[in-house]
Design a protein that fits this description.
The protein is an alpha+beta fold. The chain folds into three domains: 43 residues, no CATH class; 64 residues, no CATH class; 139 residues, DD-peptidase/beta-lactamase superfamily (Beta-lactamase), CATH 3.40.710. It has a three-stranded antiparallel β-sheet with strand order 5-6-7, with no helix packed on it. A three-stranded antiparallel β-sheet has the order 8-9-10, with helices on one face. It starts with a helix and ends with a helix. 23% of the residues are buried.
């Protein structure tokens, strides 16, 4: 029955009359060979209604606003809408219930940290950093004019891959574009020069910063190997560790910034390369996705 309800939701949910929806439900029950008389009796039962209302109120009290919403060990993991992220959430739940051996290393995660687990854990720094006081929980909100019009610092940069590439190509060519100079050599120097390098308390990975941009940490290496490797030598790109992987190419002069959803953009002034990657499907990620990093590695082959 639930398959039919979801499949035909656009049909039976159009009207506001419960009786009309009930007619559809009865027809679905009949098509499935259910006991239609008992189905009608249970549908009208006060006891059944009370159970439905109770379940609904329980969901609302836990912050459930839509379906599907998934909980693992009483933790809301709606952020994990990809197999990799869901795998990390399950690993985190198992780690919490499994006694840790003395001296054992923490379990490796795809990001090389517990960031994605912390992102859905109330009270953590990651959760506090990325939780919107306004309640911007739906990605679709970013399509509203009122949201785009807000002057939100360090948030809300919206553009196409072509627009991002043009912006970074200007920076990769000394701040000049089509014969005009938009940034001085001194400003470009600020962008390329590392002013801080260390462990990011939010992402929990080594991160370097210049004036307004991210850079690869001095500890970052080339293509990642498996963590743990499936073979002795490891396979590049197989569950990469961002602790060791460079995300802005091989040049130490490169700078840029990943975007929400797995997008990525940067420039390499040394080789005069601009890179921009966006998707038409928003992923539940705040670091570059695997495809974008493979593309970065490919352009330097």
């Amino acid at each position: 029955m639930h398959d039919l309800l979801y499949k035909n939701q656009a049909v039976w949910s159009k009207g506001s009359d419960p009786a009309t929806a009930g007619q559809f439900f009865t027809a679905y029950a009949r098509s499935l060979g259910l006991d239609v008389e008992r189905f009608a009796k249970d549908s009208a039962s006060d006891e059944v209604k009370a159970r439905v209302i109770s379940d609904g109120e329980h969901g609302v009290s836990r912050g459930v606003k839509n379906t599907p919403t998934l909980f693992i060990n009483d933790r809301d993991v709606r952020t994990f809408f990809s197999p990799e992220r869901l795998h990390e959430a399950i690993d985190a739940a198992l780690a919490e219930t499994t006694p840790k051996a003395s001296g054992a290393d923490p379990k490796n995660r795809q990001s090389g940290s517990d960031f994605y687990a912390d992102l859905v854990t109330p009270g953590t720094l990651a959760r506090k950093t990325f939780t919107s006081p306004y309640g911007l929980h739906a990605i679709s909100k970013m399509n509203e004019h009122a949201i785009r019009a807000h002057p939100i610092v360090s948030f809300g940069g919206i553009g196409s891959a072509s627009a991002l590439a043009k912006f970074y190509s200007m920076l990769a060519n000394g701040g000049k574009f089509e014969g005009q100079t938009f940034f001085s050599e001194k400003t470009i120097a600020w962008m390329t020069t590392t002013i801080a390098d260390g462990m990011d308390s939010v992402f929990q990975i080594p991160t370097a910063l210049s004036a307004g941009f991210m850079k690869d940490s001095a500890t970052a290496q080339g293509a990642a190997v498996s963590s743990p490797p499936k073979q002795k030598k490891g396979q590049p790109g197989d569950r990469p560790s961002f602790v060791t992987r460079r995300i802005f190419g091989p040049s130490r002069a490169s700078f840029g910034h990943p975007g929400a959803g797995g997008s990525h953009a940067f420039c390499d002034p040394e080789n005069r390369i601009a890179f921009a990657y966006v998707m038409n499907q928003m992923e539940q990620s705040l670091l570059p996705n695997e495809k974008s990093l493979r593309l970065v590695e490919a352009i330097y082959l």
